[in-house]
Amino acid sequence: MARFKSQFNFMLKFKRHIGNKIIWGRTNNFFYKKEYIFSSFRNNIGKRYLSIHEYLSVDLLRSHNVPCPEGYAAKTAEEAEEKALLLQNVCGDNDLVIKAQVLSGGRGVGYFKENNFEGGVHVCRNSMEVKEIATKMLNNTLITKQSGPEGKKCNTVFICERFYIRKERYIAFLLDRNSDGIILLGSSIGGSSIEDIIKKNPDAIYKLNIDINNGLTTGQAREFSENIGFKNDQLNIVTDMIVNLYKVFKKYDCTLLEINPLSELNDGRVLCCDAKLNFDDNAEYRQKNIFEKRDLTQENKEELLAKKYNLNYVSLNGNIACMVNGAGLAMATLDLIILHKGNPSNFLDVGGGATEEEITEALKIINNNENAKICFINILGGIMRCDIIANGIINAFKQVKFNKPIIIRLEGTNQEQAHEIIKNSNIKCIVCQDMNIAAQKSVAMAKIIEIAERENIDISFN
């Protein structure tokens, strides 16, 4: 659990730099009683986990005796029609639901970029309608409130039976840094996002800390099920369900297992109607079957490329690119940029042992980021020598036409040699020894470029 604790600490600390309304700290409770208290983990941008598609999550849960809807995945419109017919033969002549399989929340209210088709979740009366909707979804890009403007490519659809739901609830397992263990969250209210639930009714959330050594007992699961409103025969069903979900969470090294909604149907059944599972990247060596399900088309291309060169890169939404050595210095750099009213476009930690090749590739990634208007390089030469960084910068300029202004702060081991290397290279950049001044200049330069673009003034940096 020590690894889990440090990972979770990093996620919470990192989140405070990228959300305008998020301020993190330790409290006696897991959540702040203000806003955006759960999204730090579930939607964490600086993620260290694998996320798999809904239909794969449902298959995994069903194989561990967790009641889930019957459904089939399809990759073509023709296959979707066939699976819809098969599903109606199994479940009866009921309405069907078709869902776009993209790794992003808010699918139901999203739209497809190529054809402006609205909604990634639709109810269909028959297989012909399923085929028609699948044609509009497949091989198109779904844009949601969580996907960003680039959206996510829909390569698969999931067809399942439509249910008539009496009540929706919420449950989730996740890691808790305060207890150094697993936490079980639940609510008698479900269907909408947990952030909205807590914002409207914080008392509707129940929390159970699970001792990692003793595990979750049947008695604890039963009491928890009662707290979120289950009674009689349903109480036994949900108790077993929660115990099985915990086994899945622990067996597969999950960082998050979220069921929303946990649905009570009109016929009395209780089903996990939507599942979100995240898996610890550090467990890939022992969860090979799970990681084979990874869909690289859903992941950020820059982050995948950075991983290839051992770079710790996270895309953000601002316009100031950062290249820093060390996660602590990187977070402090983002703090300074935010303090001076700027917005970082990435988190990029080149680490303490980066080679010239890795530095070159890091700058190539930054150069290809259209949202980044300026590059702030902040290096403290301890393990990483400043002259290596300087040579990497020069090599990058030789290999690619770097079209963004650069502000460099190099301080530490071999800083004099580094400054001399940069000076003799004739690279146009601003060199600062003071970190705060460098951050100020970066923000000012980004604002100048932003104003120029807004006023259609052509400026370039060569």
TrEMBL record:
Superkingdom, natural source: Eukaryota
Residues of the ATP-citrate synthase/succinyl-CoA ligase C-terminal domain: 323-442
Record keyword Ligase present: yes
Main location: mitochondrion
Gene Ontology cellular component list: mitochondrial matrix; mitochondrion; succinate-CoA ligase complex
Catalytic activity: succinate + ATP + CoA = succinyl-CoA + ADP + phosphate
Residues given in the record as ATP binding sites: 99, 106-108, 168
GO biological process per UniProt: succinyl-CoA metabolic process; tricarboxylic acid cycle
Key words, A-Z: ATP-binding, Ligase, Magnesium, Metal-binding, Mitochondrion, Nucleotide-binding, Transit peptide, Tricarboxylic acid cycle
Binding residues for substrate: 325, 382-384
Binding-site positions, Mg(2+): 260, 274
EC number: 6.2.1.5
Domain ATP-grasp fold succinyl-CoA synthetase-type: 52-263
A GO molecular function held by the record: succinate-CoA ligase (ADP-forming) activity
Pathway stated in the Swiss-Prot or TrEMBL entry: Carbohydrate metabolism; tricarboxylic acid cycle; succinate from succinyl-CoA (ligase route): step 1/1
Cofactor(s) needed by this chain: Mg(2+)
InterPro entries attached to this UniProt entry: ATP-grasp_succ-CoA_synth-type (IPR013650), ATP_grasp_subdomain_1 (IPR013815), SUCC_ACL_C (IPR005811), Succ_CoA_ligase-like_bsu (IPR005809), Succinyl-CoA_synth-like (IPR016102)
Annotated cofactor note: Binds 1 Mg(2+) ion per subunit.
Gene3D superfamilies given in the database record: ATP-grasp fold, A domain, ATP-grasp fold, B domain, Succinyl-CoA synthetase domains
Record's subcellular location: Mitochondrion
Entry's family note: Belongs to the succinate/malate CoA ligase beta subunit family.
Function: Succinyl-CoA synthetase functions in the citric acid cycle (TCA), coupling the hydrolysis of succinyl-CoA to the synthesis of ATP and thus represents the only step of substrate-level phosphorylation in the TCA. The beta subunit provides nucleotide specificity of the enzyme and binds the substrate succinate, while the binding sites for coenzyme A and phosphate are found in the alpha subunit.
Protein name as annotated: Succinate--CoA ligase [ADP-forming] subunit beta, mitochondrial
Species this chain originates from: Plasmodium falciparum (isolate 3D7)
